[in-house]
Amino acid sequence: MRIHCSNNVTSSTISTAVRAVGAWTETLTEHGSRKRDHAFELKLTGTSNRRPNGGNRGAGDDYAATWDQWGAVIAAIFAADPEATMTYYPSAAAFDAFTRYRFDGGILPDDAHGDHTFRHDPASGLHKCTKCSAAQDWQALNGAEQARWAA
After folding, report:
1. N or C: which end of the chain has fewer CB within 10 A?
2. What is the pTM of this model?
3. For the chain, what are the domain ranges?
4. 100-143 pLDDT, tens digit each
C-alpha cells in the first residue's frame, strides 16, 4: 500500500503501530511524493488464516495481515496525519466511514479475528461480517472517492 503523508508520519510511527497489532512489516520503504512531504510503501504480514498475494513469486510461508490488523495500522497513520492519503482511502474521513469507525484510536477491536466473511445486508446497504461486528460501507467510500476526483 502506498501512503502519502506529512512529516508527522515516520517509519517509526508505522513500525510502532504494526507491532501494537501483532503484525510484521514485510516492506516499509520511504519514497518521494508529489502529493505530500513523502510516501511509504507498506506491506504487512500477520495472523490471518490466508496467505498474502505473492504477485509473481508465489505465496511464500508467511500469512497475510488480517483486515483488523490493517485497519488499526491505517487508523494510527491517520491519527498521526489526518490529511494523509493512501491506496483505497483518499482521506481519514473516507476510511472511518467505510470501516464504520471500527478502528478509532488505532486499536484492535475486542472482536477482531483473522477470517472475516463479509455479506451484503440489503436492509442497511452495508457489507457485514458473519462472525463479528465488522461492517463495510462501500457507498461512503465510493462517495468519498468521487468527491476526491471532483476536487
Report:
1. C
2. 0.89
3. 2-150
4. 999 987 889 999 998 899 999 999 999 999 999 999 998 887 77
